[in-house]
From TrEMBL:
The organism's place on the tree of life at top rank: Bacteria
Keyword tRNA processing listed: no
Record-listed Mg(2+) binding positions: D174, E200, D223
Recorded family membership: Belongs to the mandelate racemase/muconate lactonizing enzyme family.
PANTHER family registered for this protein in UniProt: D-GALACTONATE DEHYDRATASE-RELATED, ENOLASE SUPERFAMILY MEMBER DDB_G0284701
Entry protein name: Dipeptide epimerase
UniProt organism field: Methylorubrum thiocyanatum
Active-site residues, Swiss-Prot/TrEMBL: K149, K245
Enzyme class name: isomerase
Keywords: Isomerase, Magnesium, Metal-binding
Amino acid sequence: MPRLTVAVERFPIAGAFTISRGSRTEAVVVVATLEEGGVRGRGECVPYARYGESVESVAAALEEQTGWIAGGGSRFDLADRMKPGAARNALDCALWDFEAKRTGRPAHELAGLSAPGPVTTAYTLSLGDPEAMEEAARNAAHRPLLKVKLGGEGDPERIAAVRRGAPDSRLIVDANEAWRAETIEQNLAACAAANVGLIEQPLPAGDDGLLAEIDRTIPICADESLHDRAGLDALAKRYDAINIKLDKAGGLTEALKLAHEARARGFEIMVGCMVGSSLAMAPAMLLAHHAAYVDLDGPLLLARDREPGLRYEGSTVYPPLPDLWG
């Protein structure tokens, strides 16, 4: 049976990554590795304080599974042992990778999916003042899809500035729960004027009932308001799309089931990420081919990625080679 080891790794961010909840200059990730007889499988996760996670708590949750893994634990039983979240994601993805390496069958084949191909990813512009965001947009104007981080007060000016800087790019805006009932109509109007294609998580999770009542012309995507399939019922009439992140869902296993059920209910799919290395993005590529929006730009925001990493050509990201994952 494989042996589980857990490691904490750090990757510097190019500049800073800023959203409504704060700013970071490095990505701190937790990696689960399974090894047996020269076969190695890995999975990476990004602990997120917004969901009550820390690097220490996630690493400890993974360490608790060493005996279970040694006794033959599998990804088919993992959801019964661990709650959704970053720790389960790392172990689930490591189990997928280990099985792919052990059997010589690629992960997409194990999942019953067609082989993934290259996709266009969004590129994220951090929150800042309108002038800085216009300059950042101008520097990224060659990219076909930009994701714009917003912060609440002053967002109409930020949206307009980004559109000036990148007149031809498709835009997604992500408020990270920063809008409020008294400003949402103004912000929606600014998005419409800038021809924004998707609005992600405008209101706080748990206080987003207003979304079921307001008229809108731009689809709204749930992020913090949805983690796994258990949350789908609460989204009715409030959201038009969902952002599936493996760290929220608790791994590729649940993410695949979530995508299937969400599509059956008429939701559009966005595949997203935390800021991590290519190892965190690689399993999500199995979902990306079937998503309306792909946001797997984590490695593009780093000062350095792991080697080997995913291949990026501009905003086109290619499926992982087996040396990385799957």
